[in-house]
Amino acid sequence: MKLIAGFAAGLVFGLGLVISGMSNPAKVLNFLDVFGTWDPSLAFVMGGATVTTYIGYRLAWKRPAPVLTEGFQIPTNRTIDAKLLTGAALFGLGWGIGGFCPGPAWTALPMMAPGTLLFIPAMLVGLWLGGWLSAGGLRGSARPA
């Protein structure tokens, strides 16, 4: 049941991205171009998502436990460190250059646009590289036998 619910949630999320136009990188880049061809529609999509999330969390937290698992998994780490700031900066740079977040990039993949075909592999390499560096990177690969 968890797998079906996850698939359904992903499908609704992906459809929402496509319907709202967020899988089109030009729409995102126009939102970021405040002094040029500014398109405020992304702000309305973000606002709608924020309100929906707010209501959803309020309803979920009234329950003693989630429907499909034993308990809520709430992050406890509130540290703002160099890794967090570097990751946020890289995410923002990638979003500003490519016009994609990871979700919209996957929904745009079936359109086979050259930007998408470049962005997805670069994103995957970046994710792998980040995990590798977090696990020790160069320091961890040269361990004595």
TrEMBL record:
Keyword Transmembrane helix included in the entry's annotation: yes
Transmembrane region(s): 41-61, 82-105, 111-133
Keyword line: Membrane, Transmembrane, Transmembrane helix
Pfam families per record: DUF6691 (PF20398)
Protein's name according to its UniProt entry: YeeE/YedE family protein
Organism: Roseivivax marinus
Domain of life according to the entry: Bacteria
